[in-house]
Amino acid sequence: MERPAQQAMAPSAASPEPFDLAQRMKQLGLERDPSPFSCCPIGNLVVIPDNHEAALFMCGSYKGTVKTSGLHCIGVFEHAEIISMKKFTLDCNKVKVLDLKGNPVLISGVAT
Description:
By secondary structure, the protein is mainly β. It has a domain at 36-84. The protein contains 1 helix and 7 strands; from the N terminus they run H-E-E-E-E-E-E-E. The mean pLDDT is 79.
């Protein structure tokens, strides 16, 4: 059983032509899509939030740390790994353990 042939819709005079992004970029002299962060021609922009730091890596090797929050320009081949500096608290409630003689001992503690 064959599918029925679809009729081609004729464009109406009232509808405008579709927007051709590739043609418009050629008119503007752009060869590829612009990056949203292309305002930094010598590197990449990275946003570091409050209470965070960034470790900079180039080709897998550590190059340094950015400790201030805000917008920073890093090298083209560098990668920034964002690390949280938030303090975590571990509350260990009563845990029963045995000493060398087999006597039960209750241990509790808080680690930050």
